[in-house]
Amino acid sequence: MSILLLEKRGPIALLTLNRPDMMNALGQAGDGPAVAAVCAEVVADKSIRCAVLTGAGRAFSAGGDVKAMKERSGAFGGTPYDIRGGYRDNIHVIVRSLYNLEVPLISAINGPAIGLGCDVACMADIRLAADHAKLGVTFLKLGLIPGDGGAWLLPRLIGASRAAQLLFTGDVIDAATAKEWGLVSEIYPADQLMDEAMKLADRIAQQPPQALRLSKTLMRQANTASYDTIMEMSAAAQALMHETEDHIEGVNAILEKRKPEFKGR
User: Fold this and answer.
1) Structural domain contains residue 264
2) Is the same domain home to 191 and 220?
3) Residues 95-118: what's their mean pLDDT?
């Protein structure tokens, strides 16, 4: 069974990491292509306007498969050259696929999100946590570095000082600390987390889908592009949006004092 399950609920895609007997550990052979295939299906389906990512069972994801590391199998086996390939062709494919998902992505962190699991959660645009969730980037405790791009992303989310503190100590923080640091936006009782995540996804899904996807693209590109580049991209994208039926619908809805009905045209 695939590591990532896809359930379409109208305009919302529910993505579930599905290895509950191993706390959704990642890194087995084929995990990267499996995640990539699901993400490609979501992107290709223009009726999907938002996605929610969570974990099956009691964890979001415990991170890399430590047993596979011990056995030197899967993404962690073979020669150093093979291991490099395991990261590039498997682990990196997981995080790149989620990070580059065109629709807004919400992580509903339902339990521990550790190491790679924490970085996977951070690939989302918005992160919500259950009140008992724990988060940490504990790579150093395994004698490893963040091999999944976390060293690039985490400082951009919580600042260089907090990111360094979390990485260099290997501390695992609770949900309240994660919210204080800006790692998650909201905390909910565990039995309410998914309902709240789906409510938020539904609010997002009410937006015009073409403009929604392009807005996310601009925000992603803004992490590395110059201000002038983003201004040029914004002008070009805006010109396209002015020609959509959804733009006219939005204008008419404001003038007529009613709720707009965006159809993705």
Assistant:
1) no
2) no
3) 96
CB atoms within 10 A of CB 156: 12
Q: What is the pLDDT of residue 201?
A: 98
Judge whether residue 158 has pLDDT over 80: yes
CB 240 within 8 A of CB 215: no
Domain count across the chain: 2
The identity of residue 181, as a single letter, is W
Query: How far apart are alpha carbons 124 and 95 in whole angstroms?
Result: 10
What stretches of 57-206 adopt beta strand conformation (E)?
A: 105-109, 113-114, 126-130, 134-136, 172-174, 186-188
Q: From residue 15, how far is each of 63, 76, 98, 109, 251 by CA, in Å?
A: 17, 25, 10, 12, 34
Are the CB atoms for 24 and 121 separated by under 8 Å?
A: no
| Torsion sign, CA atoms 19, 24, 30, 35 | positive
Please count the residues of the chain: 265
Angle between helix 245-255 and 227-242 (nearest 10): 80
Residue 8 has which token pair? 């379409």
Q: Does one domain contain both 117 and 235?
A: no
| 243 pLDDT more than 90 | yes
Distance (Å, rounded) from C-alpha 220 to C-alpha 238? Answer: 16
DSSP string, 33-45: HHHHHHHHHHHH-
d(CA 142, CA 118): 15
Report percent pLDDT > 70 for the chain.
100
